[in-house]
Write a structure and sequence with these properties.
The protein has a single domain, classed as TIM Barrel. It contains twelve helices and 20 strands. Strand 3, helix 2 and strand 4 form a beta-alpha-beta unit. Helix 1 packs parallel to helix 2 and helix 2 packs parallel to helix 3.
């Protein structure tokens, strides 16, 4: 993919020059990734984590939180797994993070959540919760249900968070496979219909290590199988070729008001769009427009100036109306302001709501055997006294280092960064 190249329906991929590049780095990053357990009650296709160690002790978790606080300067600790809610001391973990002056955001499949646990987590200082729900998880009671049918489950989880109160609206993430790619616009429509209790939608493109490729650890050849790492598969190259640009094109086709405002690139390819973040601004169900790059830049710079950290998650359930004053700096916000003022009563009756839409393109194996990771990766975690990519943590846990790929012809087409749309052109 080249920046500015036409995608499906003539839509043009975002040009990096028109976006704000998040100013994050290895040691000054808004997120610290804390894996409290590798135990899970689901096994999602392409899962990055195998069950090898079980629950970490609370003392170990405290040590990791303090390490992330020192070496990441993070505003937020993302609590993950495995399934984070299965950890017997998850409430104490959230409390310790709050005591350190940081936000906590739990990533969960929601199966172990109940009102009592959520009340306890809120009391301990939980900032927010995001649920991974998609049609290829094989959930008990939901097998063979498509993404639209699963919105019933999503709604029940969002309503539970809303009933507890005092937390931002729930967020939802899905892994985007070839099988559910076309459902993305319907999921956005559902999110907009439920914007009072749903605050974000995140789409993560499916990736796996192909068994058809050749790998090695150091000087030793390694034959990967599905049992070696959880994300090893015998998928075809096309099945792991969905890109952030593909998801962006589908979104823009159905929602021309949407536009990405900020991005993270890759570590190897200059034209990678690894993180694309946009925020739709709505009032009373109407889409007024999208936040522009200048607004995101202002928010990041001011947060760092006032609090010493960059940020991702907000404790607020709605966008403050003073944000409309940023129309003086941001052309995109001027359009939002015009739409808002078409009905002046909104200033008194209707809140301005922001729906965050994130697109994440997972690591790509390139034709030269290198891996294109997210530049300034927000999801780095602790392992043996160092920061490592959380999506490849199992390689460190099993082999003590990263697995490397040997370039072979069978994987070159899928991994040269070409999108599925480009292959059709």
């Amino acid at each position: 993919m080249e920046e500015g190249s036409p995608l499906e329906g003539g839509i043009v991929a975002p040009d990096k020059r028109d976006l704000y590049r998040f100013p994050w780095s290895l040691n000054d990053n808004p997120i610290g990734w804390l894996e409290v357990t590798d135990t899970c009650n689901l096994h999602c296709r392409g899962c990055y984590r195998q069950s090898l160690e079980g629950h970490k002790s609370l003392d170990q978790l405290k040590e990791e939180v303090l390490f992330l606080k020192r070496w990441r300067n993070c505003d937020n600790i993302s609590i993950a797994g495995g399934e984070a809610l299965l950890h017997p001391e998850i409430v104490e973990t959230v409390g310790f993070i709050a005591h350190q002056g940081m936000k906590s955001f739990i990533l969960s499949n929601g199966m172990a959540l109940n009102r009592h646990l959520l009340d306890d987590l809120k009391e301990a200082g939980l900032t927010g919760i995001g649920f991974h729900v998609d049609s290829l998880q094989g959930r008990p009671g939901w097998r063979d249900k498509d993404e639209i049918a699963l919105c019933e489950l999503r709604l029940s989880l969002a309503e539970l968070v809303a009933e507890v109160g005092g937390l931002p609206p729930a967020g939802f993430g899905i892994t985007v496979y070839r099988e559910n790619l076309q459902a993305v616009p319907d999921l956005i429509r559902w999110t907009l219909r439920n914007q009072r209790i749903v605050g974000s939608a995140t789409f993560i493109t499916y990736r796996s290590a192909l068994t058809s490729a050749a790998y090695h650890v150091g000087d030793h050849p390694l034959e990967l199988s599905k049992g070696t790492l959880g994300y090893v598969s015998d998928d075809s190259p096309e099945d792991i070729g969905i890109s952030s640009a593909d998801v962006y094109a589908i979104l823009r086709h159905d929602f021309p008001q949407y536009e990405a405002a900020a991005y993270l690139g890759g570590t190897q390819r200059h034209d990678s769009l690894k993180w694309l973040i946009g925020v739709l601004l709505c009032s009373n169900g109407e889409i007024l427009g999208a936040v522009g790059p200048k607004t995101v830049e202002f928010a990041q710079v001011m947060h760092h100036l006032l609090f010493g950290t960059y940020f991702v998650y907000s404790k607020q359930a709605s966008v403050g109306k003073p944000a409309l004053l940023l129309a003086a700096l941001d052309p995109a916000m001027r359009n939002v302001l015009k739409g808002y003022l078409r009905n002046p009563l909104r200033l008194f009756l209707e809140p301005l709501r922001g729906i965050s839409i994130g697109i994440v393109q997972a690591p790509d194996l390139l034709e030269n055997g290198l891996i294109d990771h997210c530049d300034s990766c927000p999801d780095m975690t602790y392992w043996n006294g160092r920061l490592v990519y959380s999506c490849r943590l199992d390689e460190y846990r099993k082999f003590g280092r990263l697995v490397e790929a040997t370039p072979v012809a069978t994987v070159q087409e899928s991994i040269a960064g070409r999108t599925s749309v480009e292959r059709q052109m």
